[in-house]
Structures are given as C-alpha cells and as structure tokens.
Specification:
GO biological process, one term: endoplasmic reticulum-plasma membrane tethering
Number of strands: 28
Largest sheet: 7 strands, antiparallel
Main location: membrane
Family: Belongs to the extended synaptotagmin family.
Strand content: 25-35%
Distance between the termini: 52 Å
Structural class: alpha+beta
Radius of gyration: 36 Å
Subcellular location: Cell membrane; Endoplasmic reticulum membrane
InterPro entries: C2_dom, C2_domain_sf, Ext_Synaptotagmin_C2A, Ext_Synaptotagmin_C2B, Extended_Synaptotagmin, SMP_LBD, Synaptotagmin_SMP
Length: 596
C-alpha cells in the first residue's frame, strides 16, 4: 500500500513542517491544484467506501451484506499479500539459492545459527557417464593388473614369483559420485579445485593363483571416501589445463569379501588387519601427501605436480578441557567417579598423543604440536579424547575442524564443543604460518619450536652396488671371480632412510634395480638451520645393510638460490649418485603472528 509505506516525521521535524505551512507566504497555482487534487481523491475514496453502505440501508437490505463485503475485501487483501510474498521468495531463491535453503532449514529444524550445510551439489549426469563407461574401465583395469601389478607382486617376494591373475571382472555396478563441491574462493586463479564424494559397492570378481594349489580372490568390494581433483595450471592454449592431480584427503573406508584361501581373512581376527594393509598401499599412492598426477602438456614438471610445496604450517596449542564425561565408576556403577583423560591429535598421517591427567574432569595439558598442511581448506584437525583404562580406553568426545578456517583467521583461541558425548569442551589456540624462502629470517627458535620446514624430493639413484660385500671389495680394490659373478646376479631391493636428529623417515622399496626410482616427497621441521644436517642412507631391504650415504648440512640452503638445491649428489666415498631436491622454507613469523 502506498500510504502504509509513508513515515511520519518526529517532533522537531514536524514542528518545522508546521511552521512552513503556517507562514503568510502566498501559495502558487501549482500548489493549490495539488492540494485540490489530493482532496478530490480523498473524497472519491470516501464516497466509494460509504456509498455501498448507504445503498444497502436505502434499499432495506440486511447488515449482513455489509459484513460479507468487508470479509471479501479483507480476503482479497490477504490473498494479494500472500502472492507477493511467494513471488518475492521465488525471486530471492533464484538470486541466492544456497543462503535461502540454509536459512529455511535452520528455521524449520530449529537449529542454531552456527550450524552450516555443506555446499555440495548432486551430479547425476556424471554418474550416467560413469555407468556408460564402466565396461571400458573394466577392460583398462584388466590390462593394468595383468601387465603392471602382476609383475610388481612377483618381484616383491620370492614366494610370489608364480603369482598370476586368472580372472578379472569389475562387475556391472559402477562407481558413484554422491556429491561434488567446487571451490571458487581461497584458491589460485590458475587452478580448479573439486571435491568428489565417491561410493563404490561393486560386484567385482577377481581370482588369482599364488602357487598351486593356493588360490586367492575377491568377490565384492566396498569403498567410500572423498577425492580432491585439481586442474592446474590453467593455460590459454589447448587443452586449457596443464595437468590433473587427484588424491584422497583422508584415508577412505574399505571392506573386502575374500574368496579362496584368502577367505580366512574374512574372519574377525584378520579382516581388519588385511584391509588395513591394503589401505596402507592405497595411502602410499594417493592419500595426502601422496598424489596421482596426469600431465597433459610437456611443459608441466611431474615432480612439482606430485609434490608441491605445502600450503602452510599449523601450530596447535592443546591447553585444557572442561566438563568431561566421568567414565570411572565405583560400587558397580552406583557411584560416579572421574576420568583419566588424554587427547589424540591428527592432521593427515601425522598424529600425537598427549599426556594423561589422572582423575580430572577439567584437565590442563598446555602442550604444543606442529603439523604440515598440504591442503586448506580440505584437511582437518582431528581431535579425540579418551579415558585411560587398564583394559580398553573409553571414548569421551571428539572434534574435527577444517584447517581452512584457521588459514582464514590466522589465529584462533577458543573453546570447541566435543561431539558424540553429553558434555565437554576442549580449549585450543591455533596459529597459521605461511611459508617463505627468506634466508634473513631467524634460523633458530629460543622456545624450542620449529623455525623452518625442510621439504625433500627424493628422485632416484644410479649405479648402486648389489650388496655390502661388493662395497668392501671396491674399497680394497678386489675384483675376484666371485665378485664378477655377483654383478650378474639379482639387483638390490633398496630404500632410503632420511634422518634429521632423532626424526627418521623411510622411502618405499624399489625392487630389483641398480638405478632405483622413488619419486617421493618428505617434510621435516627444523629447529636450528646452522647446526642441523640431513642424513640419507640407501639400504638393502633384506639385510638392512648400507649401500650408500650422504650428509647434507642445512646451512648450505641459506646461500642457495631461493633456498633450493636441485642437483645430483655423490653419496659419500662410495661415489654412488644420490640425487634429491631439498627446499627449506622458513615460517614467516617467529613471534607467533601469521601473515599471508
């Protein structure tokens, strides 16, 4: 209504208006015409309203006709307002669908304002494409398993040298994508980031012969998880994308129905062990920080795609908790006691366990942990609290926080409510540190925390000796007939052990090669760049004997271009070449402040 939208002025403004109208100035003709027109319109409305009432009384009709007319007019106005609201809601839904749906759901379900619904879309058309292409995917996997995987399995152990796939069928149930989220903010403009929630409950049928008459097989497999797909870099020429990278942000869940001799693995004693072993293999290939990469142009470096520098470092201060659930009871549960709480904290494949606070529902830990973050948003800080017992520890709450929030806020100091229990909160202080290659920043921390992060890309080695005996013969200049025959025998199964102080990390095993290729990335926290060094030892898998070694002082990185060494290294006196790429990027703020 036009009149309903008008606002009456307050006291002073009204007085000013009255003073203006009460002046003795002569009104012009246009003002007189306007006032006269407003009077005629007002009079016409009055006649239009009261004339039917007059005619009703003049004709001797009942007063109920007047009431009926009033009801009809009121109904018409209400109906008109309802239509206007519907049209306005529809327009708002078209303009801003996500916010409107979240608001309406929160109102209908009486949820708190901080409850958010994920921005995940259904992609039925992709599932239709997968359904159509699934038989051809099965053909590809059959070739992959027989041509590549079968050979790797045979080389992994002498007892598996006759391992053969006899049947490979991936069934008729395709992989399904239950939801997809596309990131438009907080990502580089030259990349597209997609999160795909996948669900596979397939009727696979795979049989293999390990060694006559031992058979193994899988008949049915269930896999659920979230895969992140990154299209980068975006380029101005065909095919518009330089490469595709995909990986699981977190370990997926896996269930397998075994057949043959491996049917024993379906028993409760072995099922979790077997599935965990397979998950370790999957994690070594495509769970962060490991990635699967498909370059689409020659200019893209595969090592940079497979092991890009992390997004940053998060420092987690586990301070305290309060109002925890009491799990210890006395007198057969009649008397409530307290708990002996401790916390487990995980980011990716790195996890820590806090100290245990005895008999306390309001424990104080005041402990600090540091994690390398490869993807934010995406990776989560996973916290679980347990009550320590002599037999099985009791669960007393958990909380997951997307580290993208910490990256946005730079620093968070607050209480977080525990999930899965009736009560309890945990207090964290979280700090985000970006990475910078600046040698002028401090090279050590007085508080014992890390001042830098070292990234190592282990590429390959060349001309490794077969075993330690060949090394000794080379040292003493011996080239006996036995040594010459040794060189013709099997090549070593080797791996690399990387060490900084007490922290030790191991590479995967490269089988039967004097020129092994690892192509793996590692990260270390550095506390004093000037005194610490990186030690690498190439070892033989079976005997754990050393085939070569390299000691690299981290101080060399301070004078290197962009604090990066990308070259081949001679492995000690043995002169076995051990190349690796070491990149040291110091955290940009040592006083606890984070910058972009």
């Amino acid at each position: 209504m036009a009149s309903a939208g008008q606002m009456y002025p307050s006291g002073p403004a009204q007085g000013a208006g009255l003073g203006e109208l009460g002046s003795t100035e002569k009104l012009d003709s246009s003002a007189v015409n306007r006032i006269l027109m407003e009077f005629l319109i007002y009079f016409g409305r009055a006649v239009f309203v009261f004339y039917p009432v007059y005619m009703t009384g003049y004709m001797g009709l009942s007063i109920s006709w007047v009431l009926l007319c009033m009801v009809m007019v009121t109904w018409y106005k209400k109906n008109r307002q309802w239509k206007d609201v519907r049209i306005g809601t529809a327009i708002e839904l078209v303009d801003n669908e996500t916010q409107v749906v979240n608001k309406e759901l929160q109102s209908a379900l009486q949820m708190a304002s901080w409850v958010q619904f994920p921005d995940v879309e259904k992609v039925h058309w992709v599932n239709k494409v997968l359904e159509q292409a699934w038989p051809f995917f099965g053909m590809y996997m059959e070739k992959l398993l027989k041509d590549n995987i079968q050979a790797v399995v045979r080389q992994s152990n002498s007892a598996l040298r006759t391992f053969t796939f006899t049947k490979i069928h991936f069934g008729h149930k395709p992989l399904r994508i239950t939801g997809m989220k596309a990131y438009t903010h907080e990502v580089d403009q030259r990349e597209v980031v997609l999160d795909l929630n996948i669900s596979y409950d397939g009727d696979v049928d795979i049989d293999a012969v390990v060694k006559e008459p031992i058979t193994a097989g899988v008949k049915g497999l269930s896999l659920k998880g979230m895969i992140r797909v990154i299209l980068e870099p975006l380029i101005g020429d065909a095919p518009l994308v330089g490469g595709i990278t995909f990986f699981f942000i977190r370990r997926p869940t896996l269930q397998i129905n075994w057949t043959g001799m491996t049917n024993l693995l379906d028993s409760p004693a072995f099922s979790s062990l077997s599935e965990e072993t397979i998950m370790d293999i999957i994690a070594s290939l495509m769970v962060l920080p490991n990635r699967m990469c498909v370059p689409l142009i020659d200019q893209v470096k595969v090592d940079q795609m497979r092991f890009p520098l992390p997004r940053g470092v998060v420092r987690v201060h586990l301070l305290e908790a309060r109002d925890l659930v009491a799990k210890d009871t006395y007198m057969m549960g009649l008397v409530k006691g307290k708990s002996d709480p401790y916390a487990t904290i995980r980011v990716g494949n790195r996890h820590f366990k806090s100290k245990t606070i005895k008999e306390n529902l309001h424990p104080k830990w005041n402990e600090v942990y540091e994690f390398v973050v490869h993807e934010a948003p995406g990776q989560e800080l996973e916290v679980e609290l347990f009550d320590e017992d002599t037999d099985k520890d009791d669960f007393i709450g958990k909380y997951n926080l997307d580290l993208g929030e910490v990256k946005r806020e730079k620093e968070m100091d607050q209480w977080f409510p525990l999930e899965g229990v009736q009560s309890g909160e945990v207090h964290f202080k979280l700090q985000w540190f970006s990475l910078m290659s600046d040698p002028n920043l401090p090279t050590e921390q007085a508080d014992g925390l890390a001042c830098a992060m070292l990234a190592v890309y282990l590429d390959n080695a060349s001309n490794l000796p077969k075993d330690h005996s060949e090394i000794e013969q080379q040292k003493h200049g011996k080239h006996s007939k036995e040594a010459r025959l040794t060189r013709r025998s099997a090549c070593p199964n080797s791996y690399v052990e990387l060490t900084i102080d007490k922290e030790v990390q191991k590479s995967k095993v490269a089988y039967a090669s004097k020129d092994p290729v690892w192509e793996e990335g590692f990260t270390f926290f550095v506390h004093d760049i000037k005194t610490q060094q990186l030690s690498l030892q190439v070892k033989q898998q079976e005997k754990k004997t050393q085939l070569g070694m390299l000691n690299l002082p981290l101080s060399r990185l301070l004078s290197a271009s962009n604090m990066t060494l990308d070259q081949r290294f001679l492995a000690g006196a043995l002169r076995n070449k051990q190349p690796n790429q070491a990149e040291s990027h110091s955290q940009d703020s040592y006083s606890g402040k984070a910058t972009t």
